[in-house]
């Protein structure tokens, strides 16, 4: 959470191992009370207790624009606030009702233009995208991008793949096998 690192009153800890991925923080100013919450839409908020008002106030939130709302565009679409409308179907997909889509009604969901055949299908590269949720994925941290691509192209259920870590040229592999949202 890059903009939270600007705060001097917090010490952060990020843990990633075979058993868990966890984030925690500790306040260095013991006269301040704070709590971090995440709701069912994926909105992360930090609250601070204001003794004078006897209530919690939002100190920080991950919601920066409409694209930060979980699954705001539906499956196989990406959100970009610099376009109008902000929801755009991924290349190879189209909205079933283009007029409604153009007016911001994305309930029609992006649909594939052609059926998958599994033989000769190609992947397109999406850059500068937030990765979709990883609730239904295959992860292998031991292989690189080329091996990840080969594993995905040999699996007819594979819809997308990416590095698990993009630093220093990338490493690890994550493969999506269910429809993906929130990119």
Fold and architecture overview:
Helix content is 8%, strand content 30%. It has 183 residues and is mostly beta strands. It has three domains: 10-61, no CATH class; 65-115, no CATH class; 117-182, no CATH class. A hairpin with a 4-residue loop joins strand 1 and strand 2. It is flat, with a radius of gyration of 20 Å.
Gist?
This protein is mostly beta strands and 183 residues long.
Q: Quaternary state, please?
A: single chain
The main pleated sheet reads as: 3 strands, antiparallel
- Distance from N terminus to C terminus (CA atoms, Å) equals 17 Å
Strand order of the largest sheet: 3-4-5
Order of helices and strands: EEEEEEEEHEEHEE
InterPro entries: Pan_app, S_locus_glycoprot_dom
Keywords: Disulfide bond, Kinase, Receptor, Signal, Transferase
Domain Apple: 118-183
Protein name: S-receptor kinase
Question: What characteristics describe this protein?
Answer:
single chain; 183 residues; mainly beta; 3-stranded antiparallel β-sheet; 2 helices; flat; kinase activity; transferase; disulfide bond
Helix and strand arrangement:
Blueprint lengths: L9 E7 L4 E7 L6 E5 L5 E7 L4 E7 L15 E3 L7 E3 L3 E2 L3 H5 L8 E2 L24 E4 L4 H9 L6 E3 L10 E4 L7
Antiparallel strand pairs: 1-2, 3-4, 4-5, 6-7, 8-9, 10-12, 11-12
């Amino acid at each position: 959470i890059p903009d939270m690192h600007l705060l001097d009153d917090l010490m952060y800890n990020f843990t990633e191992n075979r058993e868990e991925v966890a984030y925690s923080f500790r306040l260095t100013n013991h006269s301040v009370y704070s709590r971090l919450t995440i709701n069912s839409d994926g909105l992360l908020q930090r609250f601070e207790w204001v003794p004078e008002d006897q209530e919690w106030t939002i100190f920080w939130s991950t919601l920066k624009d409409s694209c930060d709302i979980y699954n705001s565009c539906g499956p196989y679409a990406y959100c970009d606030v610099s376009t109008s409308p902000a929801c755009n179907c991924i290349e190879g997909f189209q909205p079933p009702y283009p007029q409604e889509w153009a007016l911001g009604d994305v309930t029609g969901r992006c649909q594939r233009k052609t059926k998958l055949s599994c033989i000769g299908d190609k992947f397109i590269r999406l850059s500068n995208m937030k990765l979709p949720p990883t609730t239904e994925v295959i992860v292998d941290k031991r292989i690189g991008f080329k091996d990840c691509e080969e594993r995905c192209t040999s699996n007819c259920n594979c819809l997308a793949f990416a590095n698990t870590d993009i630093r220093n040229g990338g490493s690890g592999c994550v493969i999506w096998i269910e429809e993906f949202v929130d990119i």
